[in-house]
Recover the amino acids of this structure.
């Protein structure tokens, strides 16, 4: 990642950097997927600027989360939202900030199942699915929960693409295209299922 002509090339320092690069008093960066106004500052986030899960000074303090909010609010009748991540081979519904299930969980779960079966049909890759907090961990301030609760989008998903840990975040180049092909098949199947 390179920013402007006068900035350092941060990819040489930490290729797996999780946060944006906004300067803070002690450390750089805010985890933009903990910066949404959805139980901001709650479980799974941190108020320590040096933590990888630092949520920022306030909800929507970051340009990235502001841009997502602005885009969602500007679009009429958004029906489905995806937040793509790596890695774990998971298709996750809201909520991240609580183990309580959303009101339409059964429907979100049904559509997730359709998506996962379509994804598996492409290259045989198996994904698990369920709610973020119940399958993985609590994660307050996520985009999917804000989009579900505040923007009232009824189908919100976190997709954790390949792999399950053999390569982690450093997926081999030969797996990138198959990952894209199967993920796209899952997304299209989900769209067609609603």
């Amino acid at each position: 990642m390179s920013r402007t002509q006068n900035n350092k090339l941060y990819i040489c320092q930490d290729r797996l950097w999780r946060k944006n690069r906004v300067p803070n008093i002690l450390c750089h960066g805010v985890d933009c997927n903990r910066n949404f106004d959805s139980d901001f500052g709650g479980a799974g986030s941190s108020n320590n600027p040096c933590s990888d899960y630092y949520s920022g000074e306030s909800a929507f303090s970051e340009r990235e989360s502001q841009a997502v909010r602005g885009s969602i609010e500007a679009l009429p009748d958004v029906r489905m939202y995806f937040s793509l991540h790596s890695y774990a081979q998971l298709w996750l519904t809201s909520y991240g900030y609580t183990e309580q299930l959303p009101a339409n969980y059964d429907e979100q779960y049904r559509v997730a199942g359709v998506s996962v079966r379509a994804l598996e049909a492409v290259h045989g890759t198996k994904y698990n699915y369920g709610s973020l907090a119940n399958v993985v961990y609590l994660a307050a301030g996520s985009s999917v929960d804000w989009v579900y609760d505040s923007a009232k989008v009824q189908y919100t998903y976190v997709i954790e693409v390949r792999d399950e840990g053999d390569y982690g975040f450093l997926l081999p180049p030969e797996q990138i295209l198959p990952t894209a092909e199967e993920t796209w098949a899952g997304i299209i199947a989900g769209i067609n299922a609603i």
